[in-house]
Amino acid sequence: MICSPFKTMAVPNTSGPEFTLIEETTWEALRASGRHQGTAHNHTPLFDRPVLVKGGLSHWPAYQRWSFEHLAQCVRTRHADGRTLTTQFTDGLVEQGITQGRPYLPVAPYLQTLAEAALAPPDLEAALLPLSQRQALAPGERFHLNWAHMQTFEANRMYLAQWDILREFPALRQDFNLKDLWPGRRLTWEFIFLGPAHTVTGLHNDFPHNWFCQLRGVKEFILFPPDQSAHLSPSQKYDWGATLSDINIAQLHTPEQATERAQFAKAKGLYARVEAGDALFIPKRTWHAVVSHQPSISLGVFGLTAGEVMTGGALATVQDALHRLHMYRWGRCTCHKSALSSRG
Ligand SMILES: O=C(O)CCC(=O)C(=O)O
């Protein structure tokens, strides 16, 4: 009898965690419920879990004006004297992976390439949650994601992640209505993410609350509340203000991820498809990972009350100072290129 050699091959179980769909709402519903304003003393929105505000940014000038062409034009106009604006890109997985030198590249040609890519119609079935599966879900139904989708990605997509565009172009700040997001007094800071389809931001959590604003394109988010940390393999790798995970969602099927994969399968998460014009509230310390489905322009808006600046903000600043003095997690970080850098 001849046995097929393939029968003995171990096929890793990459069905991963169970998910349910995120709560979707509107500003009107949130204001009517009072959840968005918080209390008189603490203007933190009273959300104990992630919430997706559908179309919540459609009145923002940025939603109406910002396109890849518009941003490319801003960059070219600023440097009409022929100089080229370059900035530091991320090559591969964001917030995780092996620390490596990050290349400096010219911005305008990159934006032009994204403008062209954004014209291609998206394949709605090629996703972590394919359209047909999403449409067939009953309310509250649990489901697994299609992790094989990640294996179709080209390695090391260039990603203009966490670019402080508003420092380069302060006038663009007028295009945001940040007060809509954060009622009351709050220290806020913003980061722009510009990139093609199939960029991956690895699993991590941040110490502040975040209003994540999608201005162009579509991103798929997976989110896990802090009580799921035991299954999410927190990493010792240092990243300012964040806790990273050793789970690499882009390599879940590999033998190197066997331990993390087994833990990850026990987690219970939320799935959000975040489309242009949507605002996603990510409560502090909520684990999340992001896969772009289409070329995207996104803005992460972090916000801290005075009390949070004194606690979480001060702790992050002290840790950062110690890190730079080589006294805290030196050699394992996302900020310095080091021969010691390794997985996790
Ligand atoms: O959009 C992305 O790729 C990452 C966003 C993110 O992780 C954040 O805003 O905290």
Termini Cα gap: 46 Å
CATH architecture: Sandwich
CATH class: Mainly Beta
Q: Do you know the CATH topology?
A: Jelly Rolls
Total separate domains: 1
Mean pLDDT: 85
| Morphology call | globular
Contiguous uncertain segments of 5+ residues: 1-9, 339-344
Question: What is the CATH superfamily label?
Answer: Cupin
Bound molecules: 2-oxoglutaric acid
Helical residue percent band: 10-25%
Rounded to an integer, what's the Rg over CA atoms? 21 Å
Number of separate strands: 17
**What is the SS-derived class?**
alpha+beta
Overview of this structure, please?
It is a single chain. The chain is an alpha+beta fold and 344 residues long. Helix 3 packs antiparallel against helix 4 (107-117). Strands 2-3-15-10-17-8-7-5 form an eight-stranded mixed β-sheet. Strands 1-14-11-16-9-13-12 form a seven-stranded mixed β-sheet, with no helix packed on it. A two-stranded antiparallel sheet has the order 4-6. The chain has a single domain, classed as Cupin (Jelly Rolls). The chain is built from nine helices and 17 strands. Residues 1-9 and 339-344 have low confidence and may be disordered. The structure holds 2-oxoglutaric acid (AKG). 2-oxoglutaric acid binds next to strand 9, strand 10, strand 16 and strand 17.
